[in-house]
Amino acid sequence: MTTIRQRRVGKGTEAAEDQPSEETNVKPDGKILPDPPGGKVWNILSITVGGIVAISLGLLTSVYVATLHENDLWFSNIKEVEREISFRTECGLYYSYYKQMIQAASIQQGLHGLVYDNKTESVRTINILERMNVYQEVFLSILYRILPIQQYLEPVYFYIYTLFGLQAVYVIALYVTSWLLSGTWLSGLLAACWYITNRVDTTRVEFTIPLRENWALPFFAVQIAAITYLLRNHLQPAQQRLTLMAVFIATFLFSLTWQFNQFMMLIQALALFILDCLDMLPTAKVTWLYLIQISGLLLVCVLQFFNSMILGSLLISFNVSVLIARKIQKNLKKGGLLNRFGKLILHVLLVLCLTLLINKFIKKILNLESDEHIFKFLKAKFGFGATRDFDANLYLCEEAFGLLPLNTFSRLSSTLLFYVYGFVLFLLTVAAVIVAFRNLSGSDQVHFKEKMEEYTVTLKPDAAYSLVHTVLFGCLALSTMRMKYLWTSHMCVFASFGLCSTEVWKLILKCLHLYTSQRTQVIKSNTPNTAVFAGSMQLLAGVKLCTGRTLTNHPHYEDKNLRERTKQIYQIYAKRSPGDVYGILRSFGTDYVILEDSICYERRHSRGCRLRDLLDVANGHIMDGLGENEPDLKPSLYPRFCEEIKKNLPSYTMHFTRVFQNKTFHVYKLAKHK
């Protein structure tokens, strides 16, 4: 840990980067002494051994998750269609585009099919490359076609082995980050071991392989490792340029592979903003990181055919606002405690107002509404008023978007990870508060420094960033269970760093001194190739993957028109007349509709969170079952469609003919009235 040293009165508050670090041998005249020959040999040996251990652990993790996947599904012993069915919900949708590119007559035809896709949403032609983050599937399919491996390796294995291989990159990045923070590769070894032993809470790659986060998180970990190195003092210009390039590449790949990239990087930008305001990071490096985030997102925007949702992201608005506010308040880091505290409050308010104004302006110009469901969800989740919005309630009632279950902590504690993490977190938080107060107060008189030199609490920039990073992503994980994997992996790094860092132990001594989706398949041979299917989002992703049939809706929810379409399709589970439902389905070109008993008679969620309840409330109807209803809700004039259709009444059979049923699914063919 590098000391945030006391500053002399009248000097700037930023830590100078041209001073030698406390780990360096320094002569009284300020010249840096060279390391002894034996030290260089030891450093080379240590780096070599540490590097070999890192690569070995990464490969071991890759083989381990591949073995878990094989043992769970007997993947090598099941049929191709069964392998595809194992890619559940949205995973199947993403894999279908890889399959589509592989099966295309040429790469050009495959790309044309994605840019002008009329199979994913009926009655609409959409640009998949614009709407979804599937460039990784495109790249992988092209790679598979040009490499001479077709006769040795099936496409599905090339796909899953690539994802499992990225786990090696993930573990190595975590290992390196912990090593950089602590100064010893033993810390990296511990971080990797904790990641593997806590895999239930650190990754779900073995059973949700094509999920976007499994592509993105390894690159995010690489980015964090590069930022950790960038925040070290005394980097040579060439080292700094190479590190900035590594940060940019990792940021770009992370942004390209996950639709939630902007929200994750917004949290990262908030961490940088907090630390910069408290004078705990070099402002020049923070500015570079802001610009890298903006440029990375803009490059992705170009590749996604100028996706307006990216241009209207809060991240771009926030980063631009910070840079503008900094120009307006040039003397932000000068003055005493009260003076600086007042300036800091004004700075935060200025950045907040500018962010909202810029974001509102961009969305107004672009007429952007693709991400409004996310803000409605956040508003309802954090108690800023109840909502009847169907999309927001759909998220609120999903377990994955609920609070982090308490049993997570018992599992993490069983490997001692959470205990160590909690202790290190408490210790470094106290240190950060002391350092931040000292930086703001400017209590840097020479006599005070000389008196307290032995007991000075210090925190170096990379450790400070890691602390705020883990706190903010911890808050995200506690509020939204699906995002816990961003926190728990970094928890392994943070805990191992604290346990193995000599600087942390010096600080201690100083202180002492004073979730399964059902698998299903609609049989190919019984429906025309041009048939259009309607049903639940999760099921239809599998239908597209396994049959190639056209869908009315799908799980990629980041589009307002699609959300409205899904709400309309879901009227099959509402209290609507057969004529109304038929008219809705035919308006989207539907030929077949699949009804699921698990949704129609759902018991997994409590009253008010079942899909049928959300639809009833959205339609202004009283919900089923015992319990309270809002006073303005009224009884429906019609019974629930998914229940009543099974009675084969004339009013239903004139529109719908049942063509398949089992214990879970009922497939109906729609009549084609003139």
TrEMBL record:
Keywords: Glycosyltransferase, Membrane, Transferase, Transmembrane, Transmembrane helix. The gene is DPY19L3. It comes from the Eukaryota. GO terms for molecular function: mannosyltransferase activity. Residues 1-10 have a biased composition (Basic residues). Belongs to the dpy-19 family. Residues 1-32 are annotated as: Disordered. This is Dpy-19 like C-mannosyltransferase 3. InterPro entries: Dpy-19/Dpy-19-like. It is found in: Membrane. The chain crosses the membrane at residues 41-66, 215-231, 243-260, 266-284, 296-324, 344-362, 416-437. The lineage of its organism: Eukaryota, Metazoa, Chordata, Craniata, Vertebrata. Its main location: membrane. One of its GO terms (cellular component) is nuclear inner membrane. It is a multi-pass membrane protein. It comes from Taeniopygia guttata (Zebra finch).
